[in-house]
Amino acid sequence: MKALAVLATMLGLVALLSWNQLDAQREGRAAQSVALNYALYRNEAFRYALGGNGTGGEVSPAALALPTAWKPMREWRTRIEGGRCYVHGPATPTEAGKVRALFRGSYAVGWKADGHLVPSNPDGARIALPAWIADGAVVSVISLD
After folding, report:
1. Tell me: the pLDDT tens digits for 96-107?
2. In three state form, how does the secondary structure of 58-126 look?
């Protein structure tokens, strides 16, 4: 009887470990989906801004050449201000990390913390971000000058 109790306990532990591993895989796939969704939006926003279409202010998603089947997974926003184009939106730290990985660690992509884009450039220069971008948001910024 003791052997059956030990076996049942071991099977239960194996099942729990397997379940946690499946949850982690699902979370990783979901974060990757959000990263790809953001990347498509960001690329179209930058294409729009670099095409000289935006003079300033918020850019409506309807103004972007997004595929008709594309649907936002988060509230992505684009704003052109002070010679820069900012693309931002809410994201978990895992999702923001997947975005950076997708853009191969570009220093023009990160998240907002303490009013700056994180991570900072290798030379230590920090890019200040406007107050209208929420802390923790994933952010991409380019200069239009």
Report:
1. 999 999 999 888
2. EECHHHCCCCCCCCCCCCCEEEEECCEEEEEECCCHHHHHHHHHHCCCCCCEEEEECCEEECCCCCCCC
